Amino acid sequence: MASVAILLLPCDAAPAQQGEATAGIRAAIRSYAEAFERGDGKTLASLWTPDGDIVDDDGRLLNGREAVGQITPATKDAPRPSFQIEQTNLRMLTADVAVEDGTVEVTPPGATAALKGWFSATWVRHDGSWKLACVRESQVAAPHNSPRLADLDWMVGDWTVVEDRPDREPAAGAAPLAPGGRPPLEVSVRWNATRTFLLRDMKIADASAAAGGDAGDGLPTMHITQRIGWDPLSRQIVSWAFGSDGSHGEATWTRNDGTWVARTMSVLPDGTQMASLNIYSYDGVNRCTWRSVPTHVGGEHAPHVSMTMIRKPPAKTAPQASPQTSPQTSPKRGPAR
């Protein structure tokens, strides 16, 4: 990741102090970028002050060290979004405090178009070195031709997991992910009566029971309900999800051709906050690849999730029997004798 620093320094600051400070900050910025490319969460956390915080583009507050400390190296099965810093302005406020403003492009794995935003970072001299004290993020406003809720009509139907590796083609008529048992994940999507919300119900079954084991060996079945709707204020598609375990989350949705990206912030039952990019790649017919890539994570590291779902064929309805005239209502039946 490359960055261009345009130094805007107060004219009354000593040139020697300016040079020393800006050189130290530039070195810290390079170290941060290199650690991010390596997936070195330990080094990233060390470049934050203990109480440094992040406010994401949805206004949620995260501890900086905890959020970046969970970042791990990318793998084939767990790719990370790519970040490109377009340009930054660095301004010294005092000899020990500086503000860096810049723009950033984030490209989720598998997407061809980047999400654009800007950030403001405060660097402070802490224990003899430059560290991040806070970062504020903001997403660039959605264009006027942003997608409407009707563009998600393809989601309607019943879906089941058939494969957890999007890079491997499943055989025709492949069995569910857990052979011999019920699918570990089932999804049902429908419109509400006025077509103002998509109602999404997800069931994550007991993994051991799905594999043919005893139902009591695994976790209980978890249900997640989600409402997806158009927000006329932000002019974006937003969603709210609620889990049977007490977890909940919100997301904003954007579209790139056949790929949808939901920028999600979740709160787990223990209060841990987790931010992720949920990426849906739809083939235009009956197949969807879903990937969840954690970005900011507090507490225990959340794994990358990657699975492929197919839409179930519509259930066949049994033919209705011809209506028969009831003895009680037949106008031709005479009084009982």
List the defining traits of the structure above.
4 helices; disordered N terminus; 2 domains; Lipocalin; seven-stranded mixed β-sheet; mainly beta; 44% strand
Task: Reconstruct the topology from this structure.
Blueprint: E1 5-8, H1 15-38, H2 41-46, E2 48-55, E3 61-63, H3 64-69, E4 82-94, E5 97-107, E6 115-126, E7 129-139, E8 157-163, E9 185-191, E10 197-204, H4 207-210, E11 222-231, E12 236-243, E13 248-256, E14 259-267, E15 273-282, E16 287-297, E17 305-311
Parallel strand pairs: 1-4, 2-7
Antiparallel strand pairs: 2-3, 4-5, 5-6, 6-7, 8-9, 8-17, 9-10, 10-11, 11-12, 12-13, 13-14, 14-15, 15-16, 16-17
Determine the CATH superfamily of the largest domain.
Calycin beta-barrel core domain
Uncertain residue segments: 1-13, 165-183, 207-217, 322-337
Mean pLDDT: 76
**How many strand elements?**
17
Structural class, from helix and strand content?
Answer: mainly beta
Number of domains: 2
**Percent range for β-strand residues:** 35-45%
Q: How many helical elements?
A: 4
Straight-line N-to-C gap:
95 Å
Overall 3D shape: elongated
Radius of gyration: 26 Å
Numbering strands along the chain, what is their spatial order in the largest sheet? Answer: 8-9-10-11-12-13-14-15-16-17
Largest sheet: 10 strands, antiparallel, barrel
What is the level 1 CATH name of the largest domain?
Mainly Beta
Helix content: 10-25%
CATH topology of the largest domain: Lipocalin
What is the CATH architecture assignment of the largest domain? Answer: Beta Barrel
What is the H/E string?
Answer: EHHEEHEEEEEEEHEEEEEEE
